[in-house]
Specification:
Elements (H helix, E strand, L loop, with lengths): L10 E3 L7 E3 L3 E4 H4 E4 L10 E4 L3 E4 L18 E3 L4 E3 L3 H4 L2 E2 L4 E3 L4 E5 L5 H7 L3 H6 L4 E2 L6 E2 L1 H5 L2 E4 L2 H46 L7 E3 L8 E3 L3 E4 H4 E4 L14 E6 L4 E2 L2 E2 L5 E5 L1 H5 L8 E4 L1 E2 L7 E3 L8 E2 L3 E6 L5 H9 L1 H10 L1 E2 L4 E2 L2 H5 L2 E4 L2 H14 L1 H29 L41
Parallel strand pairs: 19-26
Antiparallel strand pairs: 1-2, 3-14, 4-11, 5-6, 7-10, 8-9, 8-11, 12-13, 15-16, 17-30, 18-27, 19-22, 20-21, 23-25, 23-27, 24-29, 28-29
Helix pairs in contact: 3-6, 6-12, 6-13
Length: about 475
């Protein structure tokens, strides 16, 4: 396939929020003339739906992330047909979602039924494109958690409408690009998975057997079943080697008449062995209250729960942000002199730590959580401080090459996603012409090659479905 893409030959300057110019032969239509608002109710036997920024509107039974389940007054929920579009309580963050299933959804949402000029292949991608999501900020009402889309204002907005055959070409091209980009991402994710397994094996060997192959050994016992450990290592509980500082309880009423704005860390900021500071929230509270939740250099951050893969992640705080606090779902472990934070971090992130939290966590349908008592009860065989330092240094050098390749693979995945995002934006707004491309057979969907970004972005979550009073 010749993938050389060029602009259209003729444009008109319109200065609309989506783009400054559009192909001259494209029409401009107000959203309210392209879609009909659907407000049908009285279908209590239809399946419940969930709206997700990563998967669109799907059956709640297929949704793997926490949602609030409607239990009564189901006849008041809105009907959604396959092919409809849904404006949810988080659409200002991720766009308008395409519905892949028939069912019922919260009456707080706006349901749009497409008209004859609205083909899925084009509008499904336009409504999720970066320019469109960016323009949604113009139609937001409310503040902070109460934000929503004012559909009356949005419905009056003009959007570009290519001819029907061109809408089909655009949809086909995007499916083609998605298929190929997702295959590359899937291959790189598999590489990352294999490298992480290799890294875990190195860490497990070091923290269970030490560095001296000739040292006398003893059974790990019930604490570390199936392993042997150096005989001179002593068994401790985490409460013997550190204290735990609890974090801020969000939603609590803090007196803020003389408060200060403080940054604070959430579960999303604490990854295994690293911090993610691309989205740090702030909260205003009194300095006396903040002082009890302030992080200190060298604190070991540990996630309390969420999705099962987010439980028990640990990394070290190096004072990256001045006067930073932490949410109550993130513990701050402060190690005593007999324990190096770097060594305890390895233990918590090791397969031993993973297994402990999986076995002891409080489990719900899709969530897992631990607590301070369980963290304190975490058992470790602790070497001397000198041995801890030697093991940390050894592991750091042994996994340096692996970490470099992991970082490169992760960067390449981000670049592929950025490339796809930019390309889709240019195509759906008419900045690039795809009409001349001769594409091979492109399937409607390729489930095995979808790029699941749920680990990188927050799903809509608790407000997806509302229980009616």
């Amino acid at each position: 396939m010749n993938t050389t893409l060029r602009p259209y030959e003729h444009y008109v300057d319109m200065g609309l929020p989506l783009a400054q110019r559009y192909p001259g032969h494209w029409a401009l239509q107000r959203i309210k003339f392209l879609f009909n608002e659907r407000s049908e109710k009285g279908f209590p036997d239809e399946p419940l739906l969930a709206s997700s920024q990563s998967h669109g509107v799907i059956a709640k039974s297929d949704y793997a992330t926490r949602t609030v389940e409607a239990q009564k007054d189901l006849h008041l929920l809105k009907l959604v047909e396959i092919g409809d579009y849904v404006i949810s309580l988080r659409s200002f963050q991720g766009g308008i979602e395409y519905s892949h299933a028939r069912g019922i959804i919260s009456p707080a949402y706006t349901v749009l039924a497409p008209g004859p000029m609205s083909q899925r292949g084009y509008f499904e991608h336009l409504f999720k494109s970066a320019p469109f999501v960016g323009s949604m900020s113009l139609y937001v009402t409310g503040i902070r958690e109460g934000q929503n889309i004012d559909y009356v204002r949005l419905s009056r907005e003009y959007i570009p409408v290519p001819p029907p055959d061109e809408q089909e070409s655009i949809g086909r091209f995007i499916r083609y690009i998605d298929l190929r980009v997702n295959r590359l991402i899937k291959a790189k994710k598999r590489l990352i998975e294999l490298l992480n397994e290799q890294k875990q094996a190195i860490i497990h060997q070091a923290v269970t057997r030490g560095l001296d192959p000739d040292v006398p050994m003893k059974p790990g016992g019930e604490v570390w079943p199936g392993t042997t450990v150096p005989r001179h290592w002593h068994l401790h509980r985490l409460k013997d080697i550190c204290t735990i500082q609890s974090g801020l309880t969000l939603g609590k009423q803090y007196l803020v008449s003389d408060g200060t704005e403080y940054p604070y860390l959430r579960v999303a900021n604490v990854q295994a062995e690293r911090l993610s500071l691309k989205d740090v929230k702030t909260l205003r509270l009194p300095s006396t209250e903040a002082g009890r939740r302030m992080l200190r250099y060298g604190d070991l951050l540990l996630t309390e729960g969420g999705d099962p893969d987010k439980l028990g992640r640990a990394c070290i705080w190096r004072g990256e942000i001045h006067n930073c606090l932490h949410q109550n779902h993130v513990f701050a472990l402060r190690c005593y002199q007999n324990a190096m934070p770097e060594y305890v971090q390895m233990l918590l992130n090791s397969s031993h730590g993973r297994l402990y939290f999986e076995r002891t966590a409080k489990q719900t349908t899709n969530l897992a959580a631990t607590n301070k008592s369980m963290v304190y009860a975490f058992a470790v065989y602790l070497p001397t401080p000198l041995e801890q330092a030697a093991i940390v240094e050894y592991v750091s050098q042994a996994v340096a090459g692996i970490d470099h390749v992991l970082g490169t693979a992760s960067s390449e995945i981000n670049l592929l996603r950025e490339y796809r995002t930019r390309l889709v934006a240019d195509v759906v707004t008419g900045q690039l012409d795809v009409r001349h491309l001769q594409l091979a057979d492109v399937p409607e969907v390729e489930e095995s090659c979808t790029d699941d970004e749920s680990d990188d972005s927050e799903a809509i979550g608790e407000q997806d479905s509302l229980e009616l009073e």
